[in-house]
Amino acid sequence: MQINSNISLNQSPYLNANHALNNISTGSRLNSASDDAASLSIANNLQSQSSGYSQALSNVNSAVAFTQIGDNSISEQSKLLDTIKEKLLQASTDTTSADGRELILKDIQKLAQSIDQIASSTNYNGKYILQESEDSQAASTALQIQSGENSADIIETSEIQANTLGLNLSSIFSETGASFDSSTARSYLDKVDSALDTLNEFRSELGSSQSQFESTGRSLQSLYTQTQEANSILSSSDIAKEIGNFSKANILSQIGLLTLAQGNNINQNAVSRLLV
Questions:
Q1: What are the beta bridge partners of residue 127?
Q2: When comparing pLDDT for 198 and 265, which is higher?
Q3: pLDDT tier at 246 (50, 70, 90 boundaries)?
Q4: Which fold would CATH assign to domain 57-235?
């Protein structure tokens, strides 16, 4: 005769309780591939897309700041050119004395130097906006801004040369009081008007780029939000449901333990009677 010393214990309630508790603690129903392999793969792809949109949005926001700095600097240069034009008009009339015209020339040259100083100091994170570099008056390098997940998602800025060399005003520095007569002053009026037109074109290009960056940024923000929501819907656990599952599994496990204890008591009583 054989007497079982134990009753087979069903492990399912314990496993279900642990699974429910894990989902509650993490807030996700996809904690391993065994939970739902297909959904886990989709969730991982959505998370990757979301991270890509987030970085692209950061890139675009930096580009917006870049264009805003350039626009503000060009605005200051335009004001300096307006002042230069006023002084040229004063120097262009023959009623202005030679000594007065010489003083006006010095003021104009200082203003022109300020234009170059703005160009040589305007940069964002080391990228110069109005010229090639601090020491080079060549045109700035066009920048390519990665504005999406794919390699083709590029927005390119324009080259800018907003200094006296690029504005065709550098010859003002070679003028002297003796050479700067009313006729010479008048010849610079057209150059200043042309320089103002050039600055306006630069501002227009920056403004167009900024509008494109801002539009792309709004689109990226929307895509980021949508992918985050989709990922949340797909992977988030139903806490109320999981609490119910945990409670149910916990009760079943307690019943199993009680059954096991009762079974052990029956076996012990049987053995005791046989030994009498």
A1: 124
A2: 198
A3: very low
A4: f41 fragment of flagellin, N-terminal domain (1.20.1330)
